[in-house]
Structure formats: structure tokens, C-alpha cells
Design a protein that fits this description.
With 97 residues, the chain is mainly alpha-helical. It has one domain. It contains three helices and no strands. The model has no long low-confidence stretch (mean pLDDT 70). Keywords: Membrane, Transmembrane, Transmembrane helix.
């Protein structure tokens, strides 16, 4: 009788990344993101039995992800404002002619 294949084990690294993604996304969106919480989480990761190189890679991705999120939020907030200003400027200049 054939047995079904065993599921692949979920590593603690994957659990950390999953928790990070949901916590960061939710806290940045609702404005409750605190840098001190981030610092404590990273200290816990570095002190954990995981390899320290994974913790530093995680930290680099975390900083890059937050920076990218803030950059994109700023860009998509500014684009409509700049566009509206430009359209208003063009409309005013056409009215004056």
C-alpha cells in the first residue's frame, strides 16, 4: 500500500517571515508602527538559535520593504496632487488667453 507523501516541514524562518509580513503591513497601514517594537524583535531574532546571517538578511529585507512601502505611498500620494496642480495651471492659463 502506498502512503501519501509527507508534507514538507515548516521552518521557523518561514514563520518569522510570515509574522513579519502581516505585522508590518498592518501596523504601517494603521499608523501604529513603532521602531522600538522592531528593535526588540530583531534583538530577539539575533539572540535566537537561528544563524545570525539569516537575522541580518531579514533585517536588510525589513528595512528595504518598509522603505519601499513609504516611497510608494509618497509617490502615489504626490502624483494626484501634482497632476491636479498641473491641470489647474493649464486651465488658468487657457482662461487668461
Amino acid at each position: 500500500m502506498l502512503l501519501p507523501p509527507e508534507p514538507e516541514p515548516v521552518s521557523r524562518w518561514n514563520i518569522f517571515v510570515e509574522e513579519w509580513w502581516h505585522s508590518t503591513r498592518d501596523s504601517v497601514i494603521d499608523g501604529s508602527y513603532r521602531i522600538n517594537d522592531e528593535y526588540q524583535f530583531i534583538r530577539t531574532m539575533i539572540a535566537s538559535p537561528m544563524k545570525k546571517s539569516k537575522a541580518w538578511i531579514y533585517l536588510a529585507f525589513r528595512i528595504a520593504g518598509i522603505s519601499l512601502f513609504i516611497f510608494l505611498k509618497a509617490v502615489f500620494t504626490l502624483i494626484p496632487a501634482v497632476f491636479d496642480s498641473f491641470v489647474g495651471f493649464v486651465a488658468r492659463s487657457k482662461r487668461q488667453q
